[in-house]
Design brief:
about 350 residues; alpha/beta; Nucleotidyltransferase, domain 5; five-stranded mixed beta sheet; globular
Length: about 350
Amino acid sequence: MSQPLVLGFETSCDETGIGLVRGQTLLSDALATSMAEHERFGGVVPEIASRAHLEAMVPTVHRSLADAGVTLGDVDAIAVTAGPGLTGALLVGVAAAKAYALALDVPLYGVNHLAAHVAVDELEHGRLAEPSIALLVSGGHSSLLLVPDLAQDVQELGRTIDDAAGEAFDKVARVLDLPFPGGPPIDRAAREGDPRAIPFPRGLTGPRDAAYDFSFSGLKTAVARWVEGRQRDGEPVSVADVSASFQEAVVDVLTAKAVRACRDHGVDHLVIGGGVAANSRLRALAQERCDAAGIVLRTPSPRLCTDNGAMVAALGSRLVEAGVAPAPIDLGADSSMPIDLVSR
């Protein structure tokens, strides 16, 4: 028998993602984004995101099915992001997934958005080594995880205590008059800059600080004060140097703590996921440090790092394979769903 076909729904933030996965094979990954509608506000507006999901849902499902060359009748199970994320946005996805599951009479799985960012790597690199360490970095999350069993056992080692890495990129981009979201323009500008030009601080790296937690709020403030000081004194601000120095401060901390977690827990595989995992300097420095430490690094292609339906379907496929019980039909959205709860 062929492996079950899983339809995945992702609506945790501003992107409507619908993916189809059979086993570890990605058949389609359709995406609709409302990013342009949020750009003038400098950040995601929850109400706008929710309304955009409502408008995009059915057309995106149809596009995913057409791209995969299958019909709804071929679907064996449905997976949906149940949390964490924006409550209104999550509710749209959960309601849609429940409706499809009821209409098709197939099992429904409510999955954790963060665990799905780990699962998506299996679509490109095969089964994840267990245990692995996962570094998840996005606009809303910066987390270090120990993953003994992706389907049932994901443990949080550390997380951001204030601004997540992606959020810091957005705020620094605003200071530098760069477009939203800030990650890609800062990455591009940094290629022309000197990462050692400005000694920005590395948060939570002192001997008394939590080993695996992150803090980027102080770094963001340091960049803003440096820029304001230069402007007040009438001196030029090199966007390239500021971008490179800020980016280096972020990825230095992320990669150092990830490698430390691998060493401390005797794990020789590291997977990096989330939107910030598409950053070129993060990928390069992580590879350099993992090579030096004898750690196998796995990073999905940039297109699978950002939020998408494929990652939800991938985790759903793992849950089906592991025999995890599906969710009840009264499944709800949980905006603060803890990472140690892989599914509901």
